[in-house]
Amino acid sequence: MSYSHYEEAENPPDRRKYIFALAMIVVGISFFSTLATANSYWQGFFYSPFYTTNVFTDSATPAWQVGLRPEDRVVMVAGQRIDQLQLLTVKAGLAGKSLNLVYELGRVLTAIDVNIQVLDWSRYFEKNAPFLLASLSLIWIGVITRKSPLLLRIFCTLSGVALGIAPNYYLANGCGLESGLETQCLLSGKWSTYLYNPLWSVTVAIGLCWYLSELVEKKRWRLWAQGLVLLALLISLAGFLQASIISANYNNPDYVVWQSRGEFWFLWGSLLVLALMRVWRRKRQREWGLLTVACLLVFTGGFIFVTVFDIVIIGLGQQWYTLALPLYFQINMRR
């Protein structure tokens, strides 16, 4: 064996910079995709691929003021398909006219007129900045830390990437149709449509595997438990794919919404339970452990829960609760 091979074995190449660069590229694409919304004509509500109006459409937005609420699905714009939303918004804004929307909640169709405005930079940064700050912090913590367990570092880094994709999913321009597998949605800016939810599923599954590695001492039982988590993940991903196909066939987002809400209770509920179990096991560091559980609970309740179940909360916007997650990982990395 040559000297170079010995040197490589003793000093393995540091691939963290490549992981960091790849994560930053994904987050950068998401952030810059939202720039098109700032200082441009705006229809008055934020939308995501499956329920077009989401919880970021708060009481200060024009659509809210004329009656549009989270979970309302905009199905037609000025008599045309929803995938023409952005084009028709710009045309109405240039002409100084309002935009006629037909939306449904349940099976009730209602028409409303929304005044077209320019989305100012202050609103843009108020929605996007917390995502960007939390995402960059998580990626940095996950990549730069050396001594923490590998599963914890992967859990942290993927959480940062998922939060970095969130602005594209919730805030960026693009097709707001209950899209199923329709390609025009993917080509119109919402490239995160079929990536955002599965990425969170994978991320939480890795988090569960890390907690199991901390809690289960016997290797055989630990591997069995982690194997069950991976099996549940595969079932979850298959369920999401099936729900997406059904949504495409019936042009109805309910199947994806029900799947994501059912998955929430299992994945995130299990994560919180294991976090509490870890606190109970580590009596000497219980105060720090309770703080990590509190941070995880703030993030899960303030951001994940309200966005999955379309619940409007009073006070800070949902995006600000994402800042609890970097603190959760920072404490875990050091304890």
From TrEMBL:
The keyword Membrane applies. The chain crosses the membrane at residues 20-42, 129-145, 150-171, 191-211, 223-245, 265-281, 288-305. Keywords: Membrane, Transmembrane, Transmembrane helix. The keyword Membrane applies. This is PDZ domain-containing protein.
